[in-house]
Write a structure and sequence with these properties.
The chain is mainly α. The protein has 8 helices and no strands. Its main location: membrane.
Length: 238
């Protein structure tokens, strides 16, 4: 693989490897990781759907369950789409590597590097923003605990949960297992969104760089052809 491809797409490789959708991973990891992640999504989607059925008449007042069901199914579809189209992703990555070997002119390589660098920066920026917002969201359950420490009351504040669903058991007794499950599901869902979006972004950015490099080559060829024709016309006796 070309050194530039390894550098500009190493972040995408790390993200995709964590979800088991990097083409060069073992078949075992490609099966196990997406299966585990999808099972988490379907569990929370089922629980939210049950709650949605219970509060259907008050949906306009409490639409959280409806949103969570859409997010869970959306994340599952995004993940499964790349899983089932993994061969296509592998083919696209091989084409990217091939393109980096095809262009050898200094200015063409410069154009490719510029577009790839923009794609890398956009990937990092998008991931930082989304994960930062996710971190703020994940602070919701620990807020009462922190308030009890810094601004104590006569009694402890009630627990808060990331997902307000009925687990068919006492949530307060199993608060920390529920909290860990909620955190894992949230991180997985956000990671799927970040990985898929940044992967498509990087591929689109490479396509833009490819067109720019080809455009430069065509313009350079036309200019060279015109210059050659002028020289021939100049030397041909009338």
């Amino acid at each position: 693989m070309h050194a530039a491809v390894k550098y500009y797409y190493n972040i995408n490789k790390i993200f995709m490897s964590n979800l088991g959708i990097w083409p060069e991973q073992s078949v075992f990891m490609k099966i196990v990781l997406p299966t585990i992640i999808t099972s988490f999504f379907f569990c929370i989607a089922f629980l939210e759907f049950v709650r949605l059925c219970e509060i259907w008449e008050k949906l306009t007042e409490d639409c959280e369950s409806f949103i969570m069901v859409l997010l869970a199914f959306g994340a599952s579809i995004k993940l499964l789409l790349i899983v089932f189209k993994n061969k296509n992703v592998e083919h696209l990555l091989s084409l990217i590597d091939y393109h980096w070997h095809v262009f050898t002119h200094a200015l063409e390589m410069k154009i490719m590097h510029e577009y790839a660098l923009v794609g890398r920066k956009m990937t990092i920026s998008y991931a930082v923003i989304i994960y930062s917002l996710m971190s703020l969201y994940m602070l919701i359950p620990v807020t009462p605990k922190l308030m009890d420490i810094f601004l104590p009351l006569n009694q402890s504040r009630p627990y808060k949960y990331l997902f307000d669903v009925d687990y068919s058991f006492d949530r307060e007794v199993y608060y920390y297992p529920v909290l860990i499950y909620s955190y894992l599901t949230t991180v997985m869902a956000v990671s799927v969104m970040v990985v898929t979006d940044t992967s498509y972004l990087s591929l689109a950015q490479h396509a833009c760089g490819l067109f720019a490099a080809i455009g430069y080559r065509i313009l350079n060829y036309i200019s060279f052809k015109r210059l050659t024709q002028k020289k021939i016309t100049y030397f041909v006796p009338k």
